[in-house]
Amino acid sequence: MQHQNWHPADIIAALKKHGTSLAALSRKAGLSSSTLANALTRPWPKGELLTAQAPDIPPDVIWPERYFDEKGSEYFVR
């Protein structure tokens, strides 16, 4: 069973549905407003966690390709 990462637009939409944005989350975390956008395109566990906390969805659900190998085995231990 192969799972794909969410499309960046879907992540942004999920945040918007919860009344926030990547820029707002970045500023709240004390980062530059564009910093969390990096998590959309490249692995960054801290950024993934900050982004996933707002809609209360585990990061490994949003980015399964970053947390599981092709056989479904977890390769990122939190």
TrEMBL record:
Gene3D superfamilies per UniProt: lambda repressor-like DNA-binding domains
Sample GO molecular function, one term: DNA binding
Keywords of the record: DNA-binding, Transcription, Transcription regulation
Name recorded for this polypeptide: Helix-turn-helix domain-containing protein
Record flagged with keyword Transcription regulation: yes
Family the UniProt entry places it in: Belongs to the ner transcriptional regulatory family.
InterPro entries: Lambda_DNA-bd_dom_sf, Ner_HTH_dom
Stretches assigned to the Ner winged helix-turn-helix DNA-binding domain: 5-72
